[in-house]
Amino acid sequence: MKKYLLYLLTLSAGLTACKSELENINKNPNETTTAQPDYLLANAIKSNADLILGSDASMETTTLFIQYWAKIQYTDVDKYTTSTTNIQNVWTNLYSLGLTDFNEIIKIGEQTKNPNYQAVGLILRSWSFQLLTDLYGNVPYSQALRINDYLTPQYDAQKDVYAGVLADLKKAVDLIDVSGNNPIKGDIVYNGNLSRWKKFANSLRLRVALRIADRDDATAKSVIASLSKADLIASNDETAQLIYQSSPNQNPVARDRETRDDYRVSKTVVDKLVQLNDPRLPVFANKTADYTPQGYIGVTNGLPADSAARLGFSKTSKLGDYFTTATSPAVFLNYAEVLFNLAEAAQRGYIQDDAAALYKAAVTASLQQFRVTADDIAKYLAQPAVAYDKANYKKSIGEQKWLALFGESLEAFAEWRRLDYPELKPAYAGVLNGKMPVRLTYPVGEQALNNNSYKAAVSAQGADLLTTKLWFDVK
Q: What domains sit in the chain, N to C, each tagged with a CATH number?
């Protein structure tokens, strides 16, 4: 028996030595084992930008749910028959490409004593978690990104995810050093301008505070009251966005349009723009290729394939050139949204400002973003249909914010659920019994690899269906 035990110990030691030797052999002495933060930051930003404009999180899901786009071909997804691949890819890419890299940037900032890398990593990680919980609800948060400790992380309640995001954004703001002593590289959003990163972080705090306002009025009010307008995005020049380049680094919509022609602008948004004499119509949509009396014709969401095909590819409006050019930006948070959020905060009594004036400034900022002339802006604002209605501020803000977020379908989808405007009709041949999607279902990979945590999340949140409302979505 002693000889047997001695044999096992000797064998174990030998195997350990072999493993150590193999690990050393497999190390490339010419390659660093430490990630360079500039490359990591640039790649992670672009990965998330590609995600929010790409097929999975946008083209095949939220742009259709929110009725910015419609399908004229392959219409099943426009009837809410979502692809399991799309849903899995959103989850996987946010966790493995965005969050993992942002987490590493935070660690590098801590190790190198550069608070600005740490702060920017925190801001972008918070933004990514906000996207995740907005889409799915309860998600792995406190135990996420710690694979050595938690192979099957638990799902945190949505309210706790938002609370964590608000805390991390505040921490990031406090960390930022604008003295110039701790520069960062790889910043393809603000080119190293730390003052603008601080404004982006505070503007995200404003967004998240309003997201929870119908559930936790006291916290929302406290967060927003602590913000100064000077610390928020204050012009279209300060909008948080990635401006794409030419191929192969072009905008994902531009890349998609090179080989596909199955999307059109939704009838819902075209009709609203026409109704309001909105000068953004030729920006959001192109005129029909063949002459039509209307000039702009949108497609009803969720048509059967044969009905959509009969409308004609050349007699329906494609997405406007502004959004399909190679260099069109991926917008993370725009100036108009900040002003709409301030208008709502004023209407709720969180800040002492004129809600109507802020609303008017928000509409103006959106029109200016899309290069509408001053004369056309004045005419637009003079219309009774555009005037601010404080008695139904959610309608005024909700409808105009929906237009202002065209091209930002993930945020538009969240705000439509929160504000309940505009009043959208379900897809014509939708498969959800007359209802509309209000979330993404969890990916099948979670059911296979993290089943206990998945089941606990479903038990807490409700059935894993597209129609199950999330915590923040009160009405």
A: 37-247+327-461 (1.25.40.390)
Taking the C-alpha atoms of residue 129 and residue 50, their distance in angstroms, rounded to an integer, is 16
CA atoms within 13 A on the CB side of 200: 29
Tokens 């921490």 belong to 171
In the chain, the amino acid numbered 360 is: K
CA 134 to chain centre: 8
* pLDDT tens, residue by residue, 328-354: 999 999 999 999 999 999 999 999 999
CB 358, CB 342: distance < 8 Å: yes
Structure token digits, residue 282: 């030729």
The pLDDT tens digits of the residues spanning 2-38 come to 343 333 334 344 434 444 444 455 555 544 456 788 9
Closest-CA residue to 298 (of 267, 258, 335): 267
CA–centroid distance for 264 within its chain: 22
> Of 283, 243, 284, which Cα lies nearest the Cα of 63?
284
3-class DSSP assignment, residue 263: strand
CA distance 278 to 273: 5
